[in-house]
C-alpha cells in the first residue's frame, strides 16, 4: 500500500496536508483542486486508512512499481552509452518518485506479471502484437525508442530522422554530394526474445529520401548490419572497394561506436579524415570529442529520454491520465574537426 509520504510526493503537497485531507479534517484550509488531486492520487494508489487494512494484495503492493523490458542485450547496453544512459535516467527519475523498478528478462516474463505493475516501460522495437498484448493487461504502457509503435501508447523517442536531414543539409552546404551511409538494422522482438521482422532505421530511411529529393539518387550508398565497430569497419572496407576511384567524400554513421570502426578502416588504408573523407555521426559519446580528429556528431540527451518515460508513467499511475502522448526528445548537431568543406570538381 502507498504511504502518506508517497502520496504527498506525487500530489506535490506536504505529508501533513495529505494526512489531514484523507482524515476529513474540516479545519484544514485547502483549495478544492488540491483536495481533489490528493484524493485522486490516493485512489489511484489504492490507499486506505491503516485501521481498515486487511492483508496487502499483490495489486496494492505493485501499484508503485514499474516493469522495464528491453530488446537489447546487456552487452550492447555496456558497449553503447545511448542505452546505458536511458536506463540510468529511468532509475534516477524512478528514485525521485519512490517507484520500485524491476527489469524483467525476455523469455521469463509473462503477461500475468506485467498486469500487476503500476506501469510497463518497453525499450526498443517490440512487435506490434507484443505491444498490443501488453496493453490489454496494462494500459499504463510507455514505449521508448520505437518510432513505429501505435499512437495509442505513450511514446518517447529521438528526433534522429529530422537530424539526419539536418546533417545532410550541412554536408551539402560544405559541397559534399558523394555521401554514403553506414548504419544498423533493427529487428522486432517478442516477449520470448525471438527476433521477428526487419525494420529500416529512421536514419537510413531519412538518408535515402533526402538523397532522392536532392537529385542524388545515383550517389546513394548504404551499408547496414549489426551495430558494432567490427561491422562498421568491414562495411567501410566494402564501401571503399566498391567505389573504386570515386570514393565518397563523406560518410554518415548511425552511431559513435560504429564510427570508431569507420575511423579504423580509413586509417588502415591511409585515407585521411577529413581531407579525403569527412565523417558525421550520432550519439555524442564521451569519447567522440577525443577521437583523432574529434568526431562531428549529433548529441542526444539519453538520460532525459529515460527520465521522460518515468514522468509519463507517473502521470498514468497517480494522475490517471488516459490520453496517449508522444514525446520527441530534441537533439543537437555538434560540428567538430571530422568534417571539412569539399572542393567541387
Automatic annotation (TrEMBL):
Annotated Gene3D superfamilies: 3.40.50.2300, lambda repressor-like DNA-binding domains (1.10.260.40)
Key word DNA-binding present: yes
Molecular function GO terms recorded: DNA-binding transcription factor activity; transcription cis-regulatory region binding
Taxonomy, superkingdom: Bacteria
Signal peptide feature range: none
Annotated keywords: DNA-binding, Transcription, Transcription regulation
Keyword Transcription in record: yes
Annotated PANTHER family: HTH-TYPE TRANSCRIPTIONAL REGULATOR EBGR (PTHR30146:SF149), LACI-RELATED TRANSCRIPTIONAL REPRESSOR (PTHR30146)
Protein name from the UniProt record: Substrate-binding domain-containing protein
Lineage summary: Bacteria, Bacillati, Bacillota, Bacilli, Lactobacillales
